[in-house]
Amino acid sequence: MADVSDPAIAQAYEDVRSDKSETTWLLLDYESDRSDRLVVTSTGTGNPLDELKDNLDEGKASYAYGRVSYANDKESKREKFILVVWIGPKCRVMRRAKISVHAADVKDVLRVFSIEVAAREKGDLEEEPIVKRLRKAGGASYDGV
């Protein structure tokens, strides 16, 4: 089991979800290579997909939660939440093996999201395909995709 008991995780989650906070994303990393304890290592106020790419380590497994804003047309703007499960290409084998179990523990704390993004390389965090998935998940895909 992953240890997600750090109160800073719940606080960062609430900040991302709150309209009163400028925080748009959070990043959880393991406290050390041998630990199953997760801690908040970064938060940000910009585009989560762009900023996460700069904060993800190719040698680690991480979890991120972000608020993604997009427009369906000129008149409307939507905000949806995503959960990113990152397994860097240089992540240790034993850490990789635990990710599916640990992701379930993370979802107990980062509960509300529209889609889960499994990312193995930074290119998996490109905005266009993620927004397309959000539109489909939200029932607001008017372009026939």
Automatic annotation (TrEMBL):
GO terms for cellular component: actin filament; cortical actin cytoskeleton; site of polarized growth. Belongs to the actin-binding proteins ADF family. Coactosin subfamily. GO terms for biological process: regulation of actin filament polymerization. InterPro entries: ADF-H (IPR002108), ADF-H/Gelsolin-like_dom_sf (IPR029006). Keywords: Actin-binding, Cytoplasm, Cytoskeleton. This is ADF-H domain-containing protein. The keyword Cytoplasm applies. One of its GO terms (molecular function) is actin filament binding. Gene3D superfamilies: Severin (3.40.20.10). The keyword Transmembrane helix does not apply. Signal peptide: none annotated. Residues 1-135 form the ADF-H domain. It comes from the Eukaryota. It is found in: Cytoplasm, Cytoskeleton.
